[in-house]
Write a structure and sequence with these properties.
The protein is α+β, with helices and mostly antiparallel strands. Helix content is about 25%, strand content about 50%. It has three helices and six strands. The longest helix is centred in the N-terminal third of the chain and has 20 residues, at about 15-35.
């Protein structure tokens, strides 16, 4: 379990290093999503991960990864700008704004969205346990 670039972030770090580490983690996770590689995506999420989408649908890890593996969900863009990160011992919460684009069951989509991710530190790395996505109202 690598946990991506935010591995080994310490609780007593100033805000800037934690911000840079989690911004890097979100960029790497976005790259895994755009690669449409379920194994690479799985490196960033906890076995119990769930995502609440902007459409109100809640998907568990296995279901999400299956959608990617089957090509039912394909990302062509996943960008995010980290707005804030709060680290509390072995839990971190990020707030980011970005763009998610691709196809869902063959239908193109492009959404500007806010995302809130809750990470836990395990084995020296960070894994996401919950994601909530909210549309920004932009196009």
């Amino acid at each position: 379990m690598t946990g991506g670039p935010a591995a080994d972030a310490r609780d007593d770090e100033p805000a800037e290093p934690a911000h840079a580490r989690f911004a890097g983690l979100l960029r790497a996770w976005g790259a895994a999503l755009v690669a449409n590689d379920p194994a690479a995506i799985d490196e960033f999420v906890d076995p119990g991960w769930t995502i609440a989408g902007a459409d109100g649908d809640v998907q568990e890890r296995a279901g999400f990864l299956a959608l990617v593996a089957l090509g039912e969900l394909v990302h062509t863009e996943m960008s995010s700008q980290l707005v804030s990160v709060r680290v509390h011992d072995d839990v971190a919460v990020t707030l980011a704004r970005g763009v998610s684009a691709g196809t869902w069951h063959g239908t193109p989509f492009r959404e500007e969205e806010w995302s809130v991710d809750t990470f836990v530190r395990r084995d020296g790395g960070w894994r996401c346990v919950h994601t909530a996505v909210v549309p920004t109202g932009g196009t």
